């Protein structure tokens, strides 16, 4: 087995007296979509915020490609190739698609020390990425404000690709999308993994998860209570793991 891209060990996060995350061990491999499931308040967002450098863990360790990492900021996580696409996408409505993809990392040419943006080059790069994603967006110069929810997700994914992310984390990417757009985003998610990215997908939609993920991890009350390969489980079992009706989870609940 190759080294997992990401190894979380004993991750714990306490907010004062509240333990939001408790001793979570989890691996994410390159080329796979790992779905994170669990009830409201189970600790999913807290977990990804630790991976994204937004929260420092109270206890526990993270390694990326076998190297221990400790993030002081989201920028630290981005620097080792972790891209997080939050549900409320941080895109600028009035900027173009290409400008959004490059925001903060523009290609600049300096003439006598004066920086000039290389617009044509950025537009070409974005056009190629959108093609590669099969995103059906014809004009990288169009303002993001003119795009649908699904197309915006495509732009956010494109940005993750441009940053050359090794791990892409998506928090409920299809929650607000219509059927056709959900299709597109699920396809893009799969494509990211097929390109060699590790993808961590948070979703409450069991059908989506079964369609796109290779593995599933279920969180409950801050703990990871189960991990399953998609081909070794079914929606009924996953639902019972989430709700706590599953015998394994009932046994764990009793121990607490
Ligand atoms: N910044 C914070 N300060 C205090 N408590 C927090 C903070 N963030 C999360 N929590 C608490 O930690 C627990 C886990 O929350 P988290 O947001 O990780 O859940 P979740 O699994 O993402 O739920 P949902 O599916 O509703 O998004 C909850 O009890 C929540 O109230
Ligand atoms: Mg959440």
UniProtKB/TrEMBL annotation:
One GO MF annotation is: ATP hydrolysis activity
Q: Which residues form the ABC transporter domain?
A: 6-246
Report what the protein is called. Answer: Galactose/methyl galactoside import ATP-binding protein MglA
Entries under Pfam families matching the protein: ABC_tran (PF00005)
Q: What are the alphabetically sorted keywords of the record? A: ATP-binding, Hydrolase, Nucleotide-binding
What EC designation does it have?
3.6.3.17
Belongs to which family?
A: Belongs to the ABC transporter superfamily.
Q: Which InterPro entries match?
A: AAA+_ATPase, ABC_carbohydrate_import_ATPase, ABC_transporter-like_ATP-bd, ABC_transporter-like_CS, P-loop_NTPase
Q: Report which superkingdom the organism of origin falls in.
A: Bacteria
| SUPFAM superfamilies named among the record's database cross-references | P-loop containing nucleoside triphosphate hydrolases
């Amino acid at each position: 087995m190759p080294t997992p891209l990401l190894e979380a060990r004993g991750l714990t996060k306490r907010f004062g007296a509240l333990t939001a995350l408790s001793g979570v061990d989890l691996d994410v491999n390159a080329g796979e979509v790992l779905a994170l499931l669990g009830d409201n308040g189970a600790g999913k967002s807290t977990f990804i915020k630790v991976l994204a450098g937004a929260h420092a863990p109270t206890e526990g360790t993270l390694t990326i490609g076998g190297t221990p990492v400790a993030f002081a900021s989201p920028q630290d996580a981005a620097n080792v190739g972790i891209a997080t696409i939050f549900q409320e996408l941080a895109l600028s409505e009035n900027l173009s698609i290409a400008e959004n993809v490059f925001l903060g990392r523009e290609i600049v040419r300096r003439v006598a020390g004066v920086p000039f943006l290389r617009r044509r080059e950025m537009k070409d790069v974005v056009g190629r990425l959108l093609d590669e994603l099969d995103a059906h967006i014809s004009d990288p110069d169009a303002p993001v404000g003119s795009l649908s929810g699904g197309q915006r997700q495509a732009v956010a994914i494109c940005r993750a690709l441009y940053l050359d992310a090794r791990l892409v984390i998506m928090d409920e990417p299809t929650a607000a999308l219509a059927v056709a757009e959900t299709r597109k985003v699920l396809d893009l998610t799969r494509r990211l993994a097929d390109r060699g990215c590790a993808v961590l997908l948070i979703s409450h939609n069991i059908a989506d998860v079964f369609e796109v993920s290779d593995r599933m991890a279920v969180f409950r009350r801050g703990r990871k209570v189960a991990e399953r390969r998609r081909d070794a489980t079914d929606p009924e079992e996953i639902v019972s793991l989430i709700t706590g009706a599953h015998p394994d989870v009932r046994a764990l609940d009793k121990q607490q």
